[in-house]
Amino acid sequence: MIQICGAPCCWGVDDPKNPYLPPWTRVLEEAGLAGYRAIELGPYGYLPIDAAAVSAELRRDGIAIVAGTIFHDLLDPAGQADVLKAVDDICRLITDPAMPKLPSHQGQKSPAPYLTVMDWGHDERDYAAGHPDRAPRLSPEAWADLMSNVRAVCLRAGQYGVRPVIHPHAGSYIEFEDEIAAVVRDIPYETAGLCLDTGHLYYSGMDPAAALRRYASRLDYVHFKDVDGPVYRQVLREHIRFFDGCGKGAMCPIGTGSLDYPGIRAALEEIGYSGYITVEQERDPRNVEGSLRDVKASVAYLKSAGYQI
Description:
Blueprint: E1 2-5, H1 24-33, E2 38-40, H2 51-61, E3 64-72, H3 80-94, E4 114-119, H4 123-126, H5 140-158, E5 163-166, H6 177-186, E6 193-197, H7 198-203, H8 208-214, E7 219-224, E8 226-227, H9 229-236, H10 242-247, E9 251-252, H11 261-271, E10 275-279, H12 291-304
Helix pairs in contact: 1-2, 3-5, 8-11
């Protein structure tokens, strides 16, 4: 069985310091109105690290937390203590006994909640998002440092019983096919699974269905996005950060863009994926009034394509 979930980025919540973010209570309320029964926590610092307050709102809206998020610079050793503190805070929150629980699915390899682990914060890669031919790569020594920091994050999450999943992300140092292959080589499955995002795979020049098949043995969790082809092609012609491209509309409701969701469903069925899929549509939070409409459109499309909500 596959369960569709939501994420705060559909309401423009990617940077917790953005002054235009909607209240977190609105996001949870509208997630429930959209028909979701689970949502991600969103970036560290958006929802309060307060189990009583968050669990009360979740129960009011009929939803639970499917995953927390680490979206930090995982290369700089000077920031590693702060990263690990964020891991502690997030994992304590999402495993607190007061929080609503998600049922495990039959056949699911690793139970929720997860911790999605994403590297972020490097201008030289952000401006090269989607360009495998010109994006700078790390030296072997720097890559080893990145992997060491990623392993530390994953092992810390595991101490709380939270399953870490490494999420390749456009504009980060884990984005392209060669980098995903290197993660699989350097991080054992016992330490972390993968969270593959169909939109990021497409944005970065890969075939999402083929990638899902290729990494089926490492796949614990999936994100769904759709990409507006004309906007995407225009953004790739500009010198622009990834989220600035999203602000221009590079991401769109599921079923209205360039991704082949019947083909993706066939790939998931072929590999026997059973678990959670989270819908994302990054946007400028100043356009939040369109969030619930677009989320409902994505849910309606996925229902029509045979996915369960």
